Amino acid sequence: MRVLVVTAVPAERDAVVRGVVSATETATEAGAGAEAAEAEVSVPGGRTLHRVVRSPLTVDALAAGVGPAAAAAATATALTAAELGQTPYGLVVSAGIGGGFAPAPLGSVVVGEAIVAADLGAETPDGFAAVTELGFGTVEHLPPPALVRAVAEATGAVRGAVLTVSTVTGSAERAAELRRRHPGAAAEAMEGFGVAEAAAAHSMPAAPGVPGAHGVPGVPVLELRAISNAVGPRDRAAWRIGEALDALAGAFRHLPSALATWKGPSR
């Protein structure tokens, strides 16, 4: 399987790579095959993927920039480049650190049961109206439930919705409003919905050797967030970014084993 992991910034990408490499080193020490190979691969747009290969898994980690627009553009470019190179991805993962809602404490990991655009819509006299209530668009993507379960079991992650926002929450009032509108929310971040939109818009190629087979709309998507701060009043002194990056690396150390139990996308 080929997996594209999209983060916002290089520090998150490096944590992902550290975790995947650690997983492959552990497997090699246990006598499960060759060591991992690493490489830097240029992609259109002036970005560079950090690739970790240990058959049968290839993980490409990409720092796309902050926010849903940058994430969507970089993800779409990487998916298209991979397909043109006849090396398509079977899974896209949005990953990084983020804010946590209870019961996700600092240093924990959240796996998204839903990836939700929390502020895509309009303010009305009756309050916020999601874009779907206005009659167009979508505000939610659902990762494969079996994959979410496998990753949660392998990593010990909290399961819940991950909210994508363009403005990070900085007050108790907004945090309470988000929880009121999304009672199942476990984390807040800024890129997941953009990654999911790009994955949903991309078609997986047809199964090889199957006469008449057609591409399947959408590439499966997952979101993993390590919690660096509580969603609410902005208090930089209370953030635990280093701990969250270590937790992110720890989660990706277990990703290969979780993927091994997942049957992958159906065609």
UniProtKB/TrEMBL annotation:
Family: Belongs to the PNP/UDP phosphorylase family. Futalosine hydrolase subfamily.
Keyword annotations: Hydrolase, Menaquinone biosynthesis
Entry coiled-coil feature ranges: none
Organism of provenance: Streptomyces bingchenggensis (strain BCW-1)
UniProt GO cellular component terms: cytosol
Protein name: Futalosine hydrolase
The enzyme's E.C. designation: 3.2.2.26
Keyword Hydrolase belongs to the record: yes
Cited HAMAP family: MqnB
Main function: Catalyzes the hydrolysis of futalosine (FL) to dehypoxanthine futalosine (DHFL) and hypoxanthine, a step in the biosynthesis of menaquinone (MK, vitamin K2).
Signal peptide range: none
Domain of life of the source: Bacteria
A GO term for molecular function: adenosylhomocysteine nucleosidase activity
Gene3D superfamilies per the UniProt record, alphabetical: Nucleoside phosphorylase domain (3.40.50.1580)
InterPro entries, per database record: FL_hydrolase_MqnB (IPR019963), Nucleoside_phosphorylase_sf (IPR035994)
